[in-house]
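User: Can you help me understand a structure? I only have the sequence.
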Amino acid sequence: MRIGRRVRVAHAVQVAAAWPGSTVVCAGSGPSLAAADLDAARAAGCRVIVVNDAYRLAPWADVLYACDSKWWAWHKGAVGFAGRKFALAPQTRRWPDVAVLAHTGRRGLEGDRGGLRSGYNSGYQAINLAVHLGAARILLLGYDMQGDHFFGAHPDQSRPPFAVCLREFPSLAAPLAALGIDVVNCTPGSALRVWPVVPLAVALEGRAA
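Assistant: Let's start by predicting it. Here is the structure, written out as tokens:
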């Protein structure tokens, strides 16, 4: 199955498949996100990508992903985070340790390791990044897609356009399935219903090696 329209990515970062066959937790910053769940995923041997402020609950995570320049400015480049950092263009080069990937479109799954599809939200982009890194199975935490963030409001009081975001996620389903990548939503009460919603403890019992 065709993953999506290929966009030529020039002079971009290329993400290596560093975690082939792994179970990857993508942790969004929805109100349900809890440090205990992230710790459980770590103890189970999962790789962890934290999205935006989720790094505050898991400073030990493997990867921090945040799309927006303003977020990186608010957090001063997340200088205390020791893992890898990624963002999406257009993005400032103010933070030299943040790898900037190309924006290659809105819908679907980007196969070029130098870019990501946007889906209008960083949680969507983190799933695409997990695929680049070699995920065979992806578990979603903090993908409430409703309500506020676990930490409250951003400094500018902005909130995600949930209705728009929810319309984009279905375009990921078929490309991920075609690649044999299993996605499980472990977010209780999530408004995102593209993938089965399963308690984290149950999902971890069936994690990939």
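Now, to help you interpret it: Confidence is low (pLDDT under 50) at residues 1-11. The chain has six helices and eight strands. Let me know which part you'd like to focus on.
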